[in-house]
Design a protein that fits this description.
The structure holds 2 protein chains of 2 kinds. By secondary structure, chain A is of the alpha/beta class. Chain A contains 5 helices and 5 strands; from the N terminus they run βαβαβαβαβα. Chain B folds into 2 domains: 42 residues, no CATH class; 133 residues, Orthogonal Bundle (Helix Hairpins), CATH 1.10.287.500. Chain B is rod-shaped and about 140 Å long. Classes of the chains: A alpha/beta, B mainly alpha. Chains A and B meet through α1, α3, α4 and β5 of A and α5, α6 and α7 of B.
């Protein structure tokens, strides 16, 4: 389980640290960070990541565009992507799901919620 | 530049040349005379046209700047006040949550220190370690270890909660950034109005004001009192929406 490779994308370093810490508590230690879509995409294309956790509202490339770019890339099309964001409009959530988000967690969130969604995503990935 | 003649007089020479070319049936000469006339007319019109354009542009610039200022003053500044009030509330809650958790940790650590001090003291009081082992000491030590284990779990849970409580920085940071963007725009619009009033912006083209950003770039967190009608109320709401969508597929 500890071999799952995560990329955590958020423009706030505090949030990246929180997510990283929670992932480590859950036993995941292979975690890379990026601060927006533009820095994340080359990392994703270069490295064999297993899960992408991304914020939506970021300067540069926002999370929704990163998600679309990931789904448009043949190599990354099946990557589980969890949106972890304060964006709360129904229209946005629908858009994210239609763009291929595997999960959507609203900030502020609890450790339990994050674990639950991650477990679900990883189980779906293992079953695929 | 010589003063302009009254309007019909100004064109006498070109009209005569036109008439002449027409009478002679000289198409090339007619064309030349016609071009000269039209050029002469343009020269006469140009300053007037420039003046009118400048006035219109200035009026448009002023209008768009004033309309934007109106929107800023009418809605966005009061909204910004609510946003900042919300930031104060979130930082206040996070600070209290953090201090409550620290308060919860202190007795746990104190108890561990007190318990181990007592055990050590009792251990040292027995000159002979064999006597200590035959006494009540092992029972007390076991109780202490049991308690410390439970307290450590509580401590660990508090530390996780402390970590989560720092999430306020991201939320308030996003809200503050949106207010910074507003202040920035307010400064630009006011500056523009001042320049128009001073007559320094008369000939500049009207810069189309940026459209309000759509949600594609992200809107930031919901703010108490400013919630979007279309916003979810929390994670349960999202989960319901997601399963609805999955069922509809």
């Amino acid at each position: 389980m500890s071999t799952v490779k995560f990329l955590v994308v958020d423009d706030f370093s505090t949030m990246r640290r929180i997510v990283k810490n929670l992932l480590q508590e859950l036993g995941y230690n292979d975690i890379t960070e990026a601060d927006d879509g533009n820095t994340a995409l080359p990392l994703l294309k270069a490295g064999a990541f297993d899960v992408l956790i991304t914020d939506w509202n970021m300067p540069g490339m926002p999370g929704i565009d990163l998600l679309k770019a990931v789904r448009a890339d043949a190599k990354l099309a099946k990557l589980p992507v969890l949106m972890l964001t304060a964006e709360a409009k129904r229209e946005q959530i629908v858009e994210a799901v239609q763009a291929g988000a595997s999960g959507y967690v609203i900030k502020p969130f609890t450790a339990t919620t994050l674990k639950e969604k991650l477990d679900k995503m990883l189980a779906a990935r293992a079953a695929a | 530049m010589a003063p302009l003649l009254p309007e019909p007089e100004r064109y006498r020479a070109q009209v005569a040349a036109l008439q002449c070319a027409l009478d002679a049936g000289d198409a090339a000469a007619f064309r030349r005379a016609f071009d000269a006339l039209s050029e002469q007319m343009d020269v006469g019109l140009l300053p007037e046209l420039k003046r009118l354009t400048a006035t219109a542009q200035s009026a448009l610039a002023r209008f768009s700047a004033e309309a934007r200022l109106d929107a800023l003053a009418g809605h966005e500044v009061p909204d910004a006040r609510k946003r900042l009030t919300h930031v104060v509330k979130l930082t206040d809650e996070a600070a209290h949550r953090t201090m409550d958790l620290v308060d919860g940790c202190v007795p746990l650590v104190d108890e561990a220190a007190r318990g181990s001090a007592l055990l050590l003291e009792a251990w040292d009081a027995y000159g002979d370690r064999g006597l200590a082992i035959a006494s009540l000491w092992p029972e007390r030590a076991a109780m202490f270890l049991e308690r410390t284990r439970a307290d450590s779990e509580a401590l660990r849970a508090n530390l996780s909660e402390l970590l989560m409580a720092q999430g306020y920085q991201d939320i308030t940071g996003q809200i503050i950034r949106s207010v910074i963007a507003l202040v920035d725009e307010l400064e630009k619009v006011l500056g523009k109005l001042v320049r128009i009033a001073e007559g320094n912006e008369v000939t500049t083209m009207v810069r189309s004001l940026p459209a309000q950003p759509g949600w594609e770039r992200g809107l930031g967190p919901q703010v108490a009192g400013l919630e979007s009608a279309d916003a979810v109320s929390g994670q349960d709401d999202i989960d319901a929406l997601l399963s609805q969508m999955a069922a509809g597929k």
